[in-house]
Amino acid sequence: MPKEKAHVNVVIIGHVDSGKSTTTGHLLYKCGAIDQRRLEKFEKAAAQMGKSSFKFAWVLDKLKAERERGITIDISLLKFNTQKFTMTIIDAPGHRDFIKNMITGTSQADVAMLVVSAAKGEFEVGVSRSGQTREHALLAYTLGVKQIIVCVNKMDLTEPPYSQKRFDEVARGVSVFLRKIGYDPATVPFVPISGWTGENMITATQKMPWFQGWKVKRREGNASGKTLLEVLDSVQPPVRTINKPLRLPLQDVYKIGGVGTVPVGKIETGVLKPGMILTFSPAKLTAEVKSIEMHHQGLQMALPGHNVGFNIKNVAVKNLRRGDVAGNTQQDPPSDVSSFEAQVIILNHPGKIKAGYSPVLDCHTAHVTCRFAELKEKLDRRTGKKLEDQPQILVSGDAATIRLVPIKPMCVESFFTYPPLGRFAARDLKQTVAVGVIKSVEKNQGSKPAQKAQVCK
Amino acid sequence: MGQHQSSKSYDQPRYNEVERRLYEGADGPATQQQQVKTALQQAKGRQQKRPHRNFLNAGDQELVSRMKSLELENQTLHKVVLKNKTALQRLEYRAAVLEKSPAPAAVLEKSPAPAAVLEKSPAPAAVPCANSYGAMSSILLDVKPWDDETDMAKLEECVRSVQMDGLLWGASKLVPVGYGIKKLQIGCVVEDDKVGIDILEEEITKFEDFVQSVDVAALNKI
């Protein structure tokens, strides 16, 4: 069996006019999992209409039209292949629920790709002003997306076209902007491209002889190359957290005739094997895994990233629910928390937030109201430096360290030990009012040690 | 696509504006207005000089009537110019649209020349352009049943029965999970300003006899 390619999620951020859709469209078109037959059909139709010169644009539009009507599922997944990876593009929409989805959704970003326009005046508008670009880049950094790629797009529209001067100018501007957020520009590849004409996307361009290639210095080793595709191939795949203790937040719990109770969820860290004794938190149950299945196939070992169902002994369906976390009883079993300390950024709150504010937190699959018990420190968003002790109020745009208390039992972890269980979105008024990462947790000492599950007859 | 969309949405209001002015018989864009004004003034100037030389004694009445007729003529000319300009703009717009996002082939076959299209579709709103009203997102939802016996066809029926302004259901398929359980994976397109994902999830989970939970598998900009 050929070795499965590692999967990488890339979130695309950039101003509306940066041409990010064209750029991602180009990647999908050239390396995408777009059904070859359909592509040929489009291309033929384009040729018949005498639109060969606009073929690419035409096919893109056609695909866009298909997506607009939601005709195919494959297209809405935006997948493509590089030599090393299977990549899924997350084209950041303006939708208000996007940020929450980025935090709790099934596809969390591993790499951010920032697209900026080099066209005259557009870079200045897109990045310099307080726009979504800045917001998204800052969020990506805060939420632990530490790898970023910069595409200097629309090189065909600079004055003069493919101007080195303009590229340098834009790259310098973006470097400053990224450094302010917290990224180290030395680790960031900058690629001049044109998503429209395809320069430097898949193959090295002839039009920018001055471009010596991109270079990055990373702890894991240096990398260099010329095209965007090479950049994508050089990213560090998400660390396989196989060696960590098991964490598996439950999405659903099924009752299957003749089998019994089957919880389903995505393994975030560690491995799951039949015979393992699991602890569920905050359900406070233990149970033995009888068997594991993924896509209707039995598994002897399930790894991080796998969406699995498993059969457990002696637990009734009603004792487990979405939001519970499964872990290995022998190895740092999960526990509910009495309180936790988090660094949050207030995003869209219309008023003032004081201690006692209680929004609903979405963290992994859990959905629990938590009280802002104590506003400990107000921080500078960019540097993380303390601005104020015990602030009285917080408003949109503020960052702060806060102690939160869940009003119902809840299992979360610190971001450093189990990242997917350590980031959350706070929701109120049907909006994401804050996002945060958990710095430390106070495990519930008062809780009794996990009991043997009730026997289900 | 971004470029294309922006040009479209840019043209639309400008076009509407011009059209509105045309129908109201109002003045054209500021620059043109000025040109016409100066032309009018020049004409007036010539008119005023000539009668002074040749018909000095003929009285004011003739002068006034000639002035009036000239002004009338000027106005009609003005209208013609505006009309031509609008027509040209319309033609250019149409050509741009056709070039960038060809309308369905059927429309093209029926209309060999853009001019003919113009006759048939006086308003460019007729151009298929579903997204002219706001940003849209494509969402892929996982809808999970309770057990392996849930009627998935019925579940899908329930999901599709959710109707909202700005929501369009798309393709779907059943994806095996394990132990005979399948989940429904269904795509939809929403207008960002109109449909919140929370509301959507809420509406779907209302069918609690069928639906255990809803997850967002993918959320992307269109």
From TrEMBL, chain A:
Keywords from the named record: Cytoplasm, Elongation factor, GTP-binding, Nucleotide-binding, Protein biosynthesis
Molecular functions per Gene Ontology: GTP binding; GTPase activity; translation elongation factor activity
Main location: cytoplasm
Domain Tr-type G residue range list: 5-240
Subcellular location per the Swiss-Prot or TrEMBL entry: Cytoplasm
Catalysed reaction equations from the record: GTP + H2O = GDP + phosphate + H(+)
UniProt KW Cytoplasm keyword: yes
GO cellular component: cytoplasm
InterPro entries documented for this protein: EFTu-like_2 (IPR004161), G_TR_CS (IPR031157), GTP-eEF1A_C (IPR054696), P-loop_NTPase (IPR027417), T_Tr_GTP-bd_dom (IPR000795), TRAFAC_GTPase_members (IPR050100), Transl_B-barrel_sf (IPR009000), Transl_elong_EF1A/Init_IF2_C (IPR009001)
Segments passing through the bilayer: none
One Pfam family, short name: GTP_EFTU
Function: Translation elongation factor that catalyzes the GTP-dependent binding of aminoacyl-tRNA (aa-tRNA) to the A-site of ribosomes during the elongation phase of protein synthesis. Base pairing between the mRNA codon and the aa-tRNA anticodon promotes GTP hydrolysis, releasing the aa-tRNA from EEF1A1 and allowing its accommodation into the ribosome. The growing protein chain is subsequently transferred from the P-site peptidyl tRNA to the A-site aa-tRNA, extending it by one amino acid through ribosome-catalyzed peptide bond formation. This protein promotes the GTP-dependent binding of aminoacyl-tRNA to the A-site of ribosomes during protein biosynthesis.
Family: Belongs to the TRAFAC class translation factor GTPase superfamily. Classic translation factor GTPase family. EF-Tu/EF-1A subfamily.
Protein name as it appears in the record: Elongation factor 1-alpha
Automatic annotation (TrEMBL), chain B:
Stored CDD domains: EF1B
Compositional bias (Polar residues): 1-10
Domain of life: Eukaryota
InterPro entries assigned to the protein according to its UniProt record, in alphabetical order: eEF-1beta-like_sf, EF1B_bsu/dsu, EF1B_bsu/dsu_GNE, Transl_elong_EF1B/ribsomal_bS6
Pfam families tied to this protein: EF1_GNE
Domain Translation elongation factor EF1B beta/delta subunit guanine nucleotide exchange: 136-222
Bias (Low complexity) ranges: 30-44
Keyword Protein biosynthesis: yes
Keywords, sorted A to Z: Elongation factor, Protein biosynthesis
Composition-biased stretches (Basic and acidic residues): 14-24
Family: Belongs to the EF-1-beta/EF-1-delta family.
GO cellular component terms, semicolon-separated: cytosol; eukaryotic translation elongation factor 1 complex
Name of the protein this chain belongs to: Elongation factor 1-delta-like isoform X1
Renumbered residue ranges of the record's region Disordered: 1-57
Any one Gene Ontology molecular-function term assigned to this protein's record: guanyl-nucleotide exchange factor activity
